[in-house]
Structure formats: structure tokens, C-alpha cells
Amino acid sequence: MADKGMSSSRKHNLKSLILQVAKDLLAAEEIEKAETRERYMEDKCPPLVLPRTAEELKALCRELHEKIDVVDEERYILERKVDLVVMEVAELNFKALLGSKHKVTMDLRANLKQVKKEVKEEDKELRDVGDWRKNIEDKAGMGGRKKMFETEG
Questions:
Q1: Contact partners, residue 81, CB within 8 Å, separation at least 6
Q2: Of 30, 27, 26, nearest to 38 (Cα)?
Q3: pLDDT digits (tens, 9 = 90+) for 24-58
Q4: Residue 45: closest CA among 74, 73, 75, 68
Q5: Which positions ≥6 away from 147 have C-beta within 8 Å?
Q6: Is there a contact between 57 and 51 (Cβ–Cβ < 8 Å)?
Q7: What is the domain partition of the chain in residue ranges?
Q8: Which residue windows are coiled coil (predicted)?
């Protein structure tokens, strides 16, 4: 209700003042970030003193390589921790979407129809062949083939 009584020039003036304050706050925050970054770099990266001899240069290189190895190990460990947290978050999101993760085990054999197998006489004869060498000798030659055809027909 108080806004109805305020003129448009007054609204414009207040709006510009608010924007000016916000601009000043952003500039101060930017300067603070730059100073923080500068302090961090001074702490972590001391000024480089270039050696005068080859031996001093080699020692400096070894020292820098050792520091690089330590930093790489820390980075690797942190990446693994982050990956584990990301996987856990994804799993929890999945669990929240689908409910609890319980495995369904189906007994497929229970759904099958039970059939009693009838044993045919022909199958019995095939199983009870006996000595196979004797059968081969009986069927050998023309007489054996004739016997085979006569028994089938």
C-alpha cells in the first residue's frame, strides 16, 4: 500500500541506490578473493631461487619432482573419495526412486507343467541293445540288410 503513494522518480532513485550498493559489495568481494588467492599462492609457492650451478639445478629439479609426486598422490586420493561419494549419492537417488533394493529370485521350474514320461517299448529295445558287436555281425552282408528291412516292415 505504501508503494502507491511513492512517485516513479523516487522508485527509480531507490532502485539506483540499491544497485550502487550491490555494485560496491561485488567489487569488495572481488578484491577480497584476489587477496586471498595471492596469500595462498605466497604460502604454497615460495619465490623461485634459481641456482647458479648444475648440481644445484639438479637438486632443485629433484625436490620439485618429489613435491609433484606428493601432490599427485593427494589428488588421486581425493578423486577416489569424490568418486565414492558420487557413486553413493547416485545409489541413494536410485534407491529413493525405486524403493529398497531387494533381489527377486524366481523359481522357474515351479511354473513348469509336470509331465510323466511314458516309456515306449521301442525305447526299451534301443536301451537294451546288449552287445553291439553281435548286432553289427547280424546286419553285415546282404542277408543282414534283408533282415533289417523285414523286421521294420
A1: none
A2: 30
A3: 999 999 999 999 999 999 988 878 778 789 998 89
A4: 68
A5: 138, 139
A6: yes
A7: 11-47, 50-100
A8: 19-74
